[in-house]
UniProtKB/TrEMBL annotation:
Regions crossing the membrane: 386-409
Name of this protein: Nicastrin
Encoding gene, per UniProt annotation: LOC115710440
Record GO biological process: protein processing
Gene3D superfamilies per record: Zn peptidases
Coiled-coil regions listed in the entry: none
GO cellular component assignments: plasma membrane
Keyword entries, A-Z: Membrane, Transmembrane, Transmembrane helix
Length: 416
């Protein structure tokens, strides 16, 4: 959910990767309104990573925490992951009335085949919207740059697919550039990707007898929500001051920035405003709200909320918050070669068993609170000439005053 560019405050990453993030959030929202969600026979885990533009920090840290079995990932295990579906760049799939997507796969497996069948089933239910999906070319050297690479590095036989708006060549010519802004997107393409994802997940998690076209027709993406998210996450107006964001958090700024940010203190699994950026806190609150049952929400958060398996959302808005029963977690993204002990960061030696860890970058930057710039204006030529003439006049006047003063003093001394 973050991007990189020459100017860190201009890292919008509209198509790569925010279009995929918006599609995911819209799909989660669509599934949250289904009455049949309690009858799903498989568990869905939604992951949103930060730091992927910097050596896949988020996904690699997540997998590292799974190995450590830390509290932040309690209840999850990589051996339970049957299939990974990643939503990549999906904002430029619309062309001449047809929205086209390409599915990049890790190989052939029963889980992959089931997912491809589910995607085709979802596509059939969306034929009236002119949505087309196709498998990526076999000539591709592998999957495109994605978080799925971290999972494959951990377990090469992991089944996974990446949904993209391109096949062999990036369609986003502004990839990791400050020019990758909202004008580089098509909202219809994001809506189509969200619809395809939501219905595919419905097919994969529900009973086969309940994945008919009539059942899939009940899975609908809120187009207004997609447009709201685009305005909130990619524009300065309304930006993070939009009602959707302000319903969940109290943003510290208006213009969104998808720069990964820095960790200066002890990493915390609590997304507090002091340490976590606005966008990350909003996404965390949004997912916690959408993945919780509506009947389990308590108007005011209390100390018993976490003890009962709940999390406190919207606490920044009114200071009270809402206790929802959700397993939404927050895992700080930083290098697996870093550890924080006794108030100090330590750099660990490379892990020889981890090919990516052998060259794992440890990114650092200054701790400036604000970057300042002092600008000196260039005066006009006429002003420079005026200053020069003024200087000459003052110099001449001073010289004349000295001569007259000396003559006057000499005359007074002679009279004495």
């Amino acid at each position: 959910m973050d991007s990189a560019s020459f100017f860190r405050d201009k890292s919008l990453g509209a198509d790569s990767p925010i279009s995929g993030l918006i599609a995911l959030l819209a799909a989660v929202d669509a599934l949250s309104h289904l009455e049949a969600i309690d009858g799903f026979n498989k568990q869905l885990v939604f992951l949103v990573f930060t730091g992927e533009a910097w050596g896949y920090l988020g996904s690699r840290r997540f997998l590292h925490e799974l190995d450590l079995q830390s509290d932040a990932v309690k209840g999850l295990n990589t051996s339970l992951f049957e299939m990974i579906i990643e939503v990549g760049s999906v904002g430029k799939g619309f062309n001449e009335g047809v929205t086209s997507f390409h599915v990049h796969t890790t190989g052939v497996s029963s889980a992959t085949n089931k997912t491809l069948d589910a995607l085709n089933h979802a596509q059939d239910s969306l034929k009236s919207r002119n949505i087309s999906i196709s498998s990526a070319a076999a000539s591709n050297p592998g999957i495109p740059p994605s978080s799925l690479m971290s999972f494959l590095n951990k377990n090469p036989i992991t089944s996974g697919v990446v949904l993209e708006d391109f096949d062999t060549i990036f369609s986003n010519k502004f990839y990791h550039s400050h020019l990758d802004d909202s004008s580089n997107l098509n909202s219809s393409s994001i809506v189509a990707a969200a619809s395809l994802l939501a219905r595919t997940l419905y097919v994969l998690t529900s009973d086969t007898k309940d994945d008919s076209k009539s059942a899939l027709a009940s899975v609908n993406v809120n187009v207004s929500l997609v447009e709201q998210l685009m305005g909130c996450l990619l524009e300065c107006e309304p930006g993070l001051s939009c009602e959707l964001v302000k319903n969940f958090i109290a943003p510290s700024s208006t213009c969104p920035s998808h720069y990964v940010g820095v960790i200066s203190d002890e990493p915390s699994s609590t997304p507090s405003p002091e340490y976590i950026g606005d966008v990350s806190r909003f996404v965390w609150n949004f997912l916690a709200d959408k993945t919780s049952p509506p009947k389990g929400k308590t108007p005011v958060c209390s100390e018993d909320c976490s003890k009962k398996g709940g999390v406190c959302t919207r606490a920044e808005v009114d200071g009270k918050g809402i206790c929802v029963f959700s397993t939404t977690r927050y895992v700080p993204a930083y290098s697996t070669r870093l550890s924080f002990e006794s108030g100090t960061w330590n750099v660990l030696p490379p892990n020889s068993s981890d090919p990516m860890g052998m060259h794992d970058p440890v990114w650092t930057e200054s701790n400036w609170n604000a970057i300042g710039l002092r600008v000196y204006t260039v005066q006009s030529a006429a002003y420079d000439r005026l200053v020069l003439l003024g200087g000459i006049a003052i110099t001449g006047g001073a010289y004349l005053a000295i001569i007259l003063t000396r003559a006057f003093v000499a005359k007074i001394l002679k009279q004495d």
